[in-house]
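Exercise 3.2. Students should predict the tertiary structure of the chain below and write it as structure tokens, then compare their answer with the key that follows.

Predict this chain's 3D structure.
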Amino acid sequence: MKTAVAFLPLFLLGGCQMGSQPTASGSPEITVQQQKPDQVRLKLVNLLLSQGRRLNIRGNSSYQVEFERKRAGDVIERLSFSMAEIGTGTRIVVDRYIVRYSLSGRESTDPANNVPSLDDLQTMLDNMLPALSARGTEVKYGELY
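Answer key:
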């Protein structure tokens, strides 16, 4: 019984995202200074395509872009990037979802921003910031992180 109690704090911390600071949205986010959303969107699409992610056409608009990547089995990781123009640039907020399809083709979507076994989203955004902040719209393959 003492062993089970000793491991209890580890299980409780397992759902927490360590090291990330809270943001205004509650989701990982960055601000790309002195760039308009349409400029940032082009760079973001190129960066994520070069990571092997697939653009999800049905979830895209001028201010939202969705990408998917197949995980183990029939599980799909979906990243949804929302962009808003602010006075000094473009704010990007990302949310992650785990998507599964039933045998009947019905989609089941679960929020997964804080899943410890997946890449940290705030770190991913922070690493993308230099490429998104660069002047021009061209992003070279491998310029990610």
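Discussion points: The chain has one domain: 23-133. The two ends are 45 Å apart (CA to CA).
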